[in-house]
Structures are given as C-alpha cells and as structure tokens.
Write a structure and sequence with these properties.
single chain; 207 residues; alpha/beta; 8-stranded mixed beta sheet; 8 strands; 27% strand
Amino acid sequence: MRFKRLQTWIDSQYENPRGIVGTYIGEKMVRQHRVEVDWTIDQLLIQPNARVLDLGCGAGDALAQILHRFDSVHVTGLDRSKTVVRSALKRNQAAVQAGRAEVTEADFRRLPFSDAQFDRVFSIHTLYFWEDVNAVLAEIERVLVPGGSFVITYCDGKGDVAWDGITSIVWDTFFPAASALGLIDVVETRGPDSRDYHTVAIIGKKS
C-alpha cells in the first residue's frame, strides 16, 4: 500500500511537477523527450516571423530549440506548474529579456491570450492529462489565426503494448471535437519511436 501511494505521487509529478522533485522531473523530461521535441518542431513547418505557442512547455526545452533554429519567431510557453515555469524562464532568460519569448502559468481550458494570436500551437505529452478535450481544443481554435495549424504529440503504446485509453480519447473525443469546431485537414501521423515508446501526432488547421 505504501509503495502504491509513492508511485501515485511520483506519477502526479509528471502531470504537475512540484517543488524540488518537480524541478528534477522537469529536467529529466528534457533529457527523455528530445526525439519527440525535435520531430514535433519539424511537423510545425514554422515560417519566418511566426508566433508559436507551446501548451505544457515543461522546463522550456522545446521553446529553446525553436529559438535556436528560427531567428525571427516569437515563442510563448504555458504550463500549469509554477515549478517548471520557473525552469522554462531560466532556460530561456536571454530570449525573454530580448522580447522573443514569454512563459506563463495558466490552465489549458482558459488560455490568457487574445483571439487569433498564434500561427502555430503545439503540445507534447499532455493529451493524457486534458480534463476536457472539447474545451482545450476550443481554446486552441480560438487563439489560432485563420490558416494556422496545431500539432499534438503523444505516445499510444510501448513495445508490444498498445495504450487503449489514449487511443479511445483520440478517436472517440478528439477527432469528433475537432470536426465540430470546423478544424480542417486533421490527421494522425506516426513519428519515430523513442525509448521504445510509439510517437504519434494529431495535426490539423484552422480554416
């Protein structure tokens, strides 16, 4: 029973990192998820002067990689964890001071941004934790410019084991919600395996 409680607490740190342990978890995820981060950035097809939003930015590694690869973009990171927001601000301090980046703490279901503010929205390994898929997708649609696109990256299994839970969320909830919002060209695409986890992304556009 004690081990089960400890495992539940550790799992909760991946969903919402907190304190010293949360800081460590945030940096651990930077090391573990580089394959998915690089692949997701490629899928975004970022154009010059784009404004890019990372939902669930964690310790800010994806923001840093985009800033390094693209000279003229502006990036915004959002996370609900105060702990990793601090890490992301520290990792991207120079870009924040130069006005090329910002990081904020907020809820995915109520994004603190204006309508049609971003050209690209992406999120990596957060879909498992969306408490209201319809609400989050509606917010993504709202903050995207017309013609803007999104990439939602996740894993749907490891090795020979398929994760039926996330697959159900994708096909029974995500795709119907995207259709109801009028999002277009919504497709699932396979990415590279990472540490034997099967990488997938849902890509789509605002009409």
